[in-house]
């Protein structure tokens, strides 16, 4: 079963901005899917079309087999949306916000209150249920939007930068929560600027840039295309004493160096050369997240591609 | 969606709307009571006693129906205009737009919410009026029909305004420059039969004249305008505005990009 099937989706806004230029995208049921791209790439427009907040210009969109053209209400029922911006009434209490939201999906009030207890408790907000939303911290507001999106128990959750501005402890808690509900069968689509988050959580990934899908593959396959990784090594000796051949490397500070390691070469030769010089490697880490390296490289390639005649003429 | 699902959605919107205006009762319920009390004291008591009779009844009795109507119109309109625009402004209207709620349920939910506030304010003002005048009900059926239709029409008007509004100024422009003049010139304080013929004709272009007079008929049994055509006109205007708003929502005017 396909959770999402998009074909030839275009969106041109009233001001003439062409946000989507014919997107094809399939997300399978049960997937944990990352939709990545730089600012203004078309991620939020895609999510807007899926959740019917943005009207498409052309193309077809099906959500769990329901076309948004012919069965919009059924399609809407399958989605729980966690938007990028806080979009609840700041003067309402948490309980009012989530119970009303359930009501819009036809969940009777008694049942809605039970679900509110369940999801607000899971997201550690039950104690705050009678507080007004504006009294919450940023992290709590993000979690409130997740609880609200789950109230009608949708098959799919779409999260548009759910951890933006959230501290690492809460972010990790949210990751655990999202992993758990995905394991229970909920399809999750995630957009994020924290590429570490996408790499940790998502099985499949789509990268969108300038309104077009650049890559749509599994996370594993994408990471396998990364040929060179940069590692930072903390050493027992001054970095000025280091001699390495066959590798591109640089001094970071007095006791650290960074080394570019091609996939086919591996790290053993680096360790062997340092060992021969009597230098111990105290610790080692990736300079950047692997997905981040790939993402930056891909966006760089896109930017360097020659412009089409049409673009040059525009 | 099934009828029961829509009914639950409708109840949720109405509950949310009523909770909102009851939460801020000092802003929504108290001011009309104070304002109309002042009207009763100044226009009805102090000035009215010098005016004498109008339409065969005391001036105080004459202005009571119009003042009740005025508070219902203002409250119904402003409730929906400010609530719906705030929902657009804070973007919590998206809570409804992403849900499988048919547009007519959204309109009905907000309109019933506005009507509830309008009618509650109308009741408060009526209670205050009992302190100042010897009110009686000439035709309760007409009173109920006219007040419900008027509250509904102006709640729809508030929604129409909020859909177009882009700033808070846009929400206050129509009440200030259109609604208030039409209400004051709508025969609340005088019988249009006192006006020169040409101004009587101009007054008959003002829909509020029909509402105030029909409502006054329900209380006092007197009206400058025939009652049945007025009610028919109210029904027609309500249906037309409802359809226009539904069409706007369908096209996403003011709410979808």
UniProtKB/TrEMBL annotation, chain A:
Domain ABC transporter: 4-235
Swiss-Prot/TrEMBL keywords: ATP-binding, Nucleotide-binding, Transport
Xref: PROSITE patterns: ABC_TRANSPORTER_1, ABC_TRANSPORTER_2
Keyword check for Acetylation: no
Origin: domain of life: Bacteria
Keyword Transport belongs to the record: yes
An example molecular function term from Gene Ontology annotations: ATP binding
A Pfam family of this chain: ABC_tran
Protein name: ABC transporter ATP-binding protein
Organism expressing this protein natively: Neiella holothuriorum
Automatic annotation (TrEMBL), chain B:
Entry keyword Protease: no
Domain ABC transmembrane type-2 residues, every copy: 23-252
One Pfam match: ABC2_membrane
Keywords tagged on the record: Cell membrane, Membrane, Transmembrane, Transmembrane helix, Transport
Subcellular localization: Cell inner membrane; Membrane
Topology relative to the membrane: Multi-pass membrane protein
Listed transmembrane segments: 21-42, 62-85, 105-132, 138-164, 171-192, 227-249
Domain of life of the organism encoding this protein: Bacteria
Primary residence: membrane
Entry annotated with the keyword Transport: yes
Entries under NCBIfam families matching the protein: PRK15066.1
Family, as annotated: Belongs to the ABC-2 integral membrane protein family.
Name used for this protein in its record: Transport permease protein
Organism (species): Neiella holothuriorum
């Amino acid at each position: 079963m396909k959770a999402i099937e998009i074909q030839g989706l275009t969106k041109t806004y009233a001001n003439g901005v062409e946000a989507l230029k014919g997107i094809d995208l399939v997300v399978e049921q049960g997937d944990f899917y990352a939709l990545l791209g730089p600012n203004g790439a078309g991620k939020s427009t895609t999510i807007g079309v899926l959740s019917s907040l943005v009207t498409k210009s052309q193309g077809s969109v099906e959500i769990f087999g329901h076309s948004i053209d012919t069965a919009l209400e059924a399609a809407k029922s399958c989605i729980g949306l966690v938007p990028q911006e806080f979009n609840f009434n700041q003067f309402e209490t948490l309980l009012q916000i989530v119970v009303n939201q359930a009501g819009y999906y036809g969940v009777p009030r008694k049942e809605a209150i039970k679900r509110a207890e369940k999801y607000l408790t899971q997201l550690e907000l039950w104690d705050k249920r009678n507080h007004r939303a504006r009294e919450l911290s940023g992290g709590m507001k993000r979690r409130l939007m997740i609880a609200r999106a789950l109230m009608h128990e949708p098959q799919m959750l779409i999260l548009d930068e759910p951890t933006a501005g959230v501290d690492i402890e809460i972010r990790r808690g949210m990751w655990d929560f999202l992993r758990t509900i995905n394991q229970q069968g909920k399809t999750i689509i995630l957009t994020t600027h924290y590429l570490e988050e996408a790499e940790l959580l998502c099985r499949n990934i789509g990268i969108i840039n300038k309104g077009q899908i650049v890559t749509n593959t599994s996370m594993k396959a994408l990471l396998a295309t990364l040929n060179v990784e940069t590692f930072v090594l903390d050493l027992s000796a001054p970095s000025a004493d280091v001699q390495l051949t066959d590798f591109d490397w640089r001094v970071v500070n007095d006791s650290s160096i960074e080394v570019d390691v091609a996939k086919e070469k591996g790290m053993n030769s680096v360790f062997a050369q340092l060992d021969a010089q009597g230098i111990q490697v105290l610790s080692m880490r990736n300079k950047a997240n692997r997905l981040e390296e790939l993402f930056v490289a891909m966006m760089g390639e896109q930017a360097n591609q020659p412009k089409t005649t049409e673009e040059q003429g525009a | 969606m099934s009828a029961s699902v829509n009914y639950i959605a409708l109840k949720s919107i109405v509950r949310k709307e009523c909770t909102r205006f009851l939460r801020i009762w000092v802003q929504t319920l108290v001011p009309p009571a104070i304002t109309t009390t002042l009207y009763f004291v100044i226009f009805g008591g102090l000035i009215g006693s010098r005016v004498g009779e109008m339409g065969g009844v005391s001036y105080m009795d004459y202005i009571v129906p119009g003042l009740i109507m005025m508070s219902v119109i203002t409250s119904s309109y402003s409730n929906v205009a400010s609530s719906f625009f705030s929902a657009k402004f804070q973007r919590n209207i998206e809570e409804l737009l992403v849900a499988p709620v048919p547009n007519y349920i959204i309109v009905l939910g907000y309109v019933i919410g506005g009507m509830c506030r309008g009618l509650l304010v109308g009741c408060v003002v009526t209670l205050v009026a009992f302190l100042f005048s010897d009110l009686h009900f000439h035709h309760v059926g007409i009173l109920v029909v006219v007040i419900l239709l008027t509250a509904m029409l102006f709640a729809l008007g508030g929604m129409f305004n909020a859909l177009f509004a882009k700033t808070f100024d846009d929400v206050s422009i129509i009440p200030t420059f259109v609604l208030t003049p039409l209400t004051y010139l709508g025969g609340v304080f005088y019988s249009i039969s006192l006006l020169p013929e040409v101004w009587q004709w101009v007054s008959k272009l003002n829909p509020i004249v029909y509402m105030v007079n029909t409502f006054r008929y329900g209380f006092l049994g007197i009206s400058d305008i025939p009652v049945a055509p007025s009610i028919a006109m109210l029904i027609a205007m309500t249906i037309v505005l409802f359809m226009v708003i539904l069409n706007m929502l369908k096209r996403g005017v003011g709410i979808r990009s």
